[in-house]
Amino acid sequence: MLFNNTTEPERWFSGQHRAFYRLLPELHRWLSSPLGVRLLAIQAQQLEHWLPYNFGYHLVQVGVSPDLRLVDACRIAHKVILTPRLITTNCSQLQGSLTEWPIQPNSVDMVFLHHALEFFENPHRLLSEANKAIIPGGKLIVLGFNPYSLLNLWRGLGFPHYKFLRQAHFIHPGRLQDWFKLLGFALDKVCYPAVKLADTQYPTKLDRYCESIGLGIGSFYIMQATKETVGMTPIKPLWRPTAPKVVTLPLAEPTTRR
């Protein structure tokens, strides 16, 4: 994937997300490899079962995917990629800082984080920005690599195709669910597909067996959460409008009685 040679505001890329900014070209090249293409194909296949049931007006994608193919099945009409650097793609893009999203708070129906938390220096800040952007009742979908997977073992052993993933910080699914609770999200569902990413057939018998017994050892996980709306009790004002009183003058009494 080639990037535009435009002058980009370097002031956005200082500190917390400089490494993510520099890694994006390498990530796109890895996703163009046979293993990366297979990974995206399985992820798209899995998301096809989830996304058609989500509705709204605006969807924001943040992550390593160079296009919006993963969210094609979603019925939300307006989809945009929020990225710190522009890429050559036909998809709608919004260039801006990932630590200060250029998006109005409570205006987005869905945020899709595609392997963004693993490569971003401050995943808490990224989740916080997503939380601010999502409307009450909106959806947050996080797709990340599973630390309890064969993929994590292979990258630790230094297999050539997985060596690049050593730069990723795999986040434990339980920790991510704790972050959801702190931000006021309720977990809807989670799955762990692709136990053996190198297999040509998906899902395999091993995938079906692990899913049947609830064993989460797939190569990646997908979590969907809903931003809960805080219940509000209307508070009535203590004061009450009073009707104007008619001032009556005291009647004059006779000074002498008969």
Automatic annotation (TrEMBL):
<keyword id="KW-0808">Transferase</keyword>
<keyword id="KW-0489">Methyltransferase</keyword>
<dbReference type="InterPro" id="IPR013216">
    <property type="entry name" value="Methyltransf_11"/>
</dbReference>
<dbReference type="GO" id="GO:0008168">
    <property type="term" value="F:methyltransferase activity"/>
</dbReference>
<dbReference type="Pfam" id="PF08241">
    <property type="entry name" value="Methyltransf_11"/>
</dbReference>
<dbReference type="InterPro" id="IPR029063">
    <property type="entry name" value="SAM-dependent_MTases_sf"/>
</dbReference>
<feature type="domain" description="Methyltransferase type 11">
    <location>
        <begin position="86"/>
        <end position="142"/>
    </location>
</feature>
<dbReference type="GO" id="GO:0032259">
    <property type="term" value="P:methylation"/>
</dbReference>
<protein>
    <submittedName>
        <fullName>Methyltransferase domain-containing protein</fullName>
    </submittedName>
</protein>
